[in-house]
Write a structure and sequence with these properties.
By secondary structure, the protein is of the alpha/beta class. It has helices at 16-23, 40-45, 87-104, 144-163, 184-193, 213-225, 244-255, 276-282, 289-300; strands at 5-9, 28-33, 50-53, 73-76, 110-116, 128-129, 167-172, 175-176, 197-200, 207-208, 211-212, 232-236, 242-243, 260-263, 272-273. The strands form five sheets. The chain has a seven-stranded parallel beta sheet, sandwiched between helices. A two-stranded parallel ribbon has the order 6-15. The structure holds NADP nicotinamide-adenine-dinucleotide phosphate. NADP nicotinamide-adenine-dinucleotide phosphate is lined by residues 10-16, 33-37, 40, 54-57, 77-80, 114, 116, 172, 174-175, 180, 183. The site of NADP nicotinamide-adenine-dinucleotide phosphate (NAP) has 28 residues, from strand 5.
């Protein structure tokens, strides 16, 4: 993708930050956000990115004053996950911001909304979720999060159709890599380093479809190309199914740090995707999960990587 004018939200985050920096190499990139972390706005500007103050919670009529409206592509990744209790607030913030953003960028060639796989109705641990599977938006760990995403997907669908704005809704699995905090696998490594227990299911293990950040970046232009005014829906994960317990065991192998796995009724539930549709749109991933984990540990925790496996 070259010579385009791209608007990105959530670029201080794990996902959109690396996307923004990669696209900025050959495109004009604008990032909208609060940039609350000190230095985060300057870090984007250092890559030739233009920044613009924007708050999901403050979407009044002047929120877009002074912002150009001739963007060709929009990557909307910012999310208001909510406090876990106020559903109305979560729905209002995410839908209103998304609606205003789409209305402002109505002439774009493609709009990509980053959603989540956490909205699917839970089936067996090893079920491979497809785009047609039932959703229920139940997540005990943060109930407002999937509900806000389901609501925002509805707003996205409505505006894609009303504005005739080609759109893709990408339900993301677990993104990880050396950007930001590293993603869920690095949260497990931090627990291991702190000697904290990791709850695992009483039987079997949790499964997911880890997506390494380099593959995620490479797939963005292909997802833009798949946008449609009926809002193309796709599960966005990696090619491989990864067992969370297997992933923790591999972290042990890489670092020599032992994990305390504790069988438990309640665990951090994850989902594995059927990658067929995404594969047909983007082609295969290039980085295997073991290689991605090794690279991430090498970058973020170099002192922990055992020489024999580096
Ligand atoms: N990471 C994953 O594995 C994963 C999995 C499934 C789905 N997703 C989805 O992918 C997207 C990106 O996730 P992420 O992991 O990169 O998230 P993240 O690291 O937590 O970043 C969240 C982003 O949202 C922005 N944001 C939050 N509240 C805001 C507000 N009121 N106004 C403006 N911006 C606000 C944050 O900007 P500030 O600097 O201003 O706080 C930040 O840039 C999200 O939509 C998430 O639901 C992620």
């Amino acid at each position: 993708m070259q010579g385009k004018k791209v608007l990105i939200t959530g670029a201080t985050g794990l996902v959109a930050g690396p996307v923004a920096k990669a696209l900025a190499e050959h495109n004009e990139v604008w990032c909208l956000g609060r940039f609350s972390a000190p230095g985060s706005e300057a870090a984007l500007r250092d890559h030739g990115i233009t920044t613009f103050q924007w708050d999901l919670d403050n979407q009044g009529p002047t929120a877009y004053a002074g912002l150009p409206d001739d963007f060709t592509h929009v990557f909307h990744s910012a999310v208001r996950r909510g406090d876990g209790t106020d559903f109305t607030e979560s729905i209002a913030a995410n839908t209103t911001a998304t609606g205003r953003l789409m209305a402002h960028c109505r002439t774009a060639e493609a709009f990509l909304f980053v959603s989540t796989g956490a909205l699917y109705k839970r089936q067996t641990l090893d079920h491979r979720y497809r785009e047609t599977d039932p959703i229920d938006g139940v997540a005990d760990w943060l109930p407002t999060y999937p509900v806000g995403k389901i609501a925002a997907e509805g707003a996205v669908r409505a505006l894609a159709s009303v504005l005739e704005l080609p759109t893709v809704i990408a339900r993301l699995n677990i993104a990880y890599g050396p950007s930001g905090y590293g993603g869920v696998p690095m949260l497990y490594l931090k627990r291991m380093l702190a000697g904290e227990p990791i709850p695992v299911p009483l039987e079997g293990q949790n499964w997911c479809s880890l997506l390494y950040i380099d593959d995620l970046i490479a797939q963005v232009p292909k997802l833009f190309a798949a946008a449609s005014t009926s809002a193309t829906l796709v599960n966005w994960g990696g090619d491989e199914s990864v067992g969370i317990t297997d992933c923790v065991r591999y972290l042990e192998e890489l670092t020599g740090v032992q994990a305390e796995l504790v069988p438990s009724e309640i665990t951090r539930e994850t989902y594995q995707f059927d990658p067929a549709l995404r594969h047909s749109l983007t082609g295969p991933c290039a980085v295997t999960w073991r290689e991605g984990i090794r690279r991430t540990v090498a970058e973020l925790f170099p002192e922990q990587l055992r020489e024999s496996v580096s």
